[in-house]
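Problem 12. The chain below contains 433 residues. Write out its predicted structure in token notation.
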Amino acid sequence: MTGTPDGSSPVTAVAKAAGGVSRAGVIGISVGVLAAGAAAGVAIERLTVGRATRRRARAELDAAAPYGSLRGRPLTVAAPDGTELYVELDGTGWDGFRPEQKGRAGAVREERGGPRNEGIGATTVGTGFERSGGERASDDDQPTVVFCHGYCLNQDSWHFQRAALREGLRLVFWDQRSHGRSERSRSYLAGEPASIDQLGGDLEAVLDAVAPSGPLVLVGHSMGGMTVMALADRRPDLFRERVAGVALIGTLAGDWNEVSLGLPKAGAKLFKKVAPGVVRLLGRQVELVEATRRLGSDVAAVFYRRFSFGGKDVDPGVVRFAEQLLDATPIDVVAEFYPVFGAHEKYAALAAVRGLPALILAGTKDLLTPAAHSEAMAERLPEAELVVVEGAGHLVMLERPELVDHELAVLLRRAAAFCGAAEPPASVLDLAQ
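Solution.
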């Protein structure tokens, strides 16, 4: 086993982190927590490429890779507590639609030219959309497809699905509160703890704002899948009346505290015990942790890869893209949401999904939301299509995009038939073959 970048052995580095007596210890803990959503105490893999070479390779990928570059029509939607949620409407299915000028003032702000955090001005519009000429969209139109991203990510994590499904569909992408381009949670900053139930309320606000009528297909990865379940718990009537399909990718309905994160049983138990306190501590030391994360970027890359991907043949550009998504999440946001997973128990809420076209998909090497949890959800949803992807990790939609695109296209075809809509456009039907 080789040494760490500072010359010490991995065992020594982990020991320092456990003791919390050095800057290296802070690096080890903070990087581990960010990469896994909770992942300290994992041995560092062999680093065989020189640091300068890795840095040059990253610079080249940053300059050339198009990942995360796709953009839609930007809007800002107010959450129930006033937090501004960044939303993009994508897909050619929106062509001919325009925002209504009626409704609750301030519910939606249409961004001019770009994302809110780039300093672009915004104008207030009402809720919903209508066809140009004033004709309302009918309920037998193609469903609006809404994508909910996971913890420490943002809407760009759906890059491949966004590219594959744009033709002829209405797609909605949004950044969960405190993530991506959305505003930091106002209620959390005011002293209220974060919760998955709150995220379900945020999703409801997004739907009310941009898709107040017509059928829906809800797609969630990891924490985004939990968000969909929270909405099902909150609004089972919505699932009865409007939801035509659900995709739950790399997620779980409960029992987070049983997840071992790939650690030995004793190590997992110890980690689960100490992690909440460590995360809270790191969340109060933002400047120090962010600085040490930058210094420990080579170590971070090892953790990111371990907890993001199952195989070793992933495109280096995709791996770098995942690193960028994770690096962009501040440590205090990591600390804000980590405690919510242990409280997430939504098996009962799956009853609202029963009978609907559903896709449950997971990788066999997912260390964060193991495939056994997807199988447990599928037992409660016998009509669901269960897809277990051999050798794939947690970011399966980036690691195996063609397979995920295909399965989503199949779901969209089933959803259209379920809600009485015409078949999806040819591009989707081709993907479904």
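Discussion. Residues 265-283 form the longest helix (19 residues). Students who got a different answer should revisit the alignment rule from Section 12.3.
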